[in-house]
Amino acid sequence: MSFDTVIHGGTIVTADGQFRGDIGITDGRISAVAEVLDGGVERVDAGGRLVMPGGIEAHAHIAQESSSGVMTADDYLSGSVSAAFGGNSSFIPFAAQQRGQSVDDVLATYDARGARSVIDYSYHLIISDPTEAVLHDQLPRAFARGITSFKVFMTYDLMNLGDGGMLDILEVARHHGAITMVHAENNDMVKWMNRRLADKGLTAPKYHAISRPQLAEEEAINRAIQLAKLVDAPLFIVHVSTAGGAEIVRREKFNGAKLFAETCPQYLALTRDDLDRPGMEGAKYICSPPLRGHDTQEALWHHIAMGTFESVSSDHAPYRADATGKFLNGPDVAYPKIANGMPGIATRLPYLFSEGVVKGRITPEQFVALSSTNAAKTFGCTTKGRIAPGMDADIAIWNPDVARTVTHADQHDNMDYTPFDGMEITGVPEVVMNRGRTIVAHGVLKASEGQGRFFGRAPVDLRGKPGFTAPEFDTAQNFGSVLR
Ligand code: DUC
Ligand code: ZN
Ligand code: ZN
């Protein structure tokens, strides 16, 4: 067999195990995995390195306007470059529907934006306006081109669909084999807290953390799961930030629900005390759900190690700390008027590797599952997330021993800060490949604008998730009514 590239001498790590071996790559795909492979037009020495599937970043906001109209600082070029430096070979940002906009128009807009990407990309749709035409005409067209996941919101007045709207989306998604992702926070609890804080004049950035109670997330996670169970639809809870929320996810998964979830590095690395930095510095740490306390960090690490979460995702939502982003509404405004989100696409995997693998909280195999393999399974990336013959040669070669301090310059994004600045981390993705082409090597970008490709995705993989039949949908118990 002839190879374009052979990666040799490394330790190959998959979600199931690790072994010394070589990888042969032909025409962008893995064509052989064996103890020793000769040949190859190019030979990449991976001695002393870990050879893993390239990361799949499944939660990022790239070239996306927020519902209040603030554009992210990263577009598909800068966002994908930053992702690549962070060990990712592909990503799935959001394509967000504004109210009144058709899904076809949303996808045409994001297709134009995505064309700049240096890594392969797909989209999750964000649905904010589920009209009859969207539900029954436009969404099926989106599924047909392999957009098999979308996000809905239980919070924000301009995004929140209400329970009935969510049921409609869940039902359509189930019918097509798509998965619904949900931002779960109780809108009224948040609005009530906002009013109470405003009445007392408590508007500094730190009060953002108080305005979005842990109970608001726990209540909404539980409600979202019960809604999904009623129609037996798959559900993915994004950015879980509370121990209570994680406990609910764990219990319902154990009971067989078609349930998936993620948490994010910011909830592991930062706390609400970061919002209490001097002046308006705290604005840099405003994200939703908000940062919590040290006890939450420990609990979330426990849940990562025990398998509650499929993925650790960045929720990269880059708004610069200037008048284009955080301070679009003024330099000194109350926290509800500050853009919501923080960057982290380049730090997600180095942070998870360092604090997870190097510190012994998770195994290298779990790292692979959390960074790539599980996202591929959940979101139907059938040719990605594994090192095996036939798969795309999306590969990251990690040096597990290099220690460094996180700086903004390492992020290679279009931001003006990183919330992880100054953290000491060990382990670096030295070489990153997408479909066999080296995109980053030893700190140098090798990819060019637009070389990433859009990929369509398969339906969600529900093996091992029996689901739930509500008695009211069971013809033996509902007087024979056929309701689906
Ligand atoms: N939800 C996200 O997923 N990201 C940024 C802000 C938000 O509300
Ligand atoms: Zn969200
Ligand atoms: Zn997000």
TrEMBL record:
Entry GO CC: cytosol
Q: How is it modified after translation?
A: Carbamylation allows a single lysine to coordinate two divalent metal cations.
**Could you tell me which residue ranges the Amidohydrolase-related domain spans?**
50-438
Which InterPro entries does the record cross-reference, listed alphabetically?
Answer: Amidohydro-rel, Hydantoinase/dihydroPyrase, Metal-dep_hydrolase_composite, Metal_Hydrolase, Metallo-dep_Hydrolases_sf
**Originating organism:** Puniceibacterium antarcticum
Q: Return the Gene3D superfamilies for the record.
A: Metal-dependent hydrolases, Urease, subunit C, domain 1
Question: Carries keyword Metal-binding?
Answer: yes
Per the record, residues carrying N6-carboxylysine are: 151
Cofactor(s) demanded = Zn(2+)
Report the sequence similarity comment from the record.
Answer: Belongs to the metallo-dependent hydrolases superfamily. Hydantoinase/dihydropyrimidinase family.
Please give the name of this protein. Dihydropyrimidinase
The organism's superkingdom is given as Bacteria
According to the UniProt entry, its GO molecular function terms are:
dihydropyrimidinase activity; metal ion binding
Keyword Metal-binding in annotation: yes
Which EC number applies? 3.5.2.2
Q: Which UniProt keywords apply?
A: Hydrolase, Metal-binding
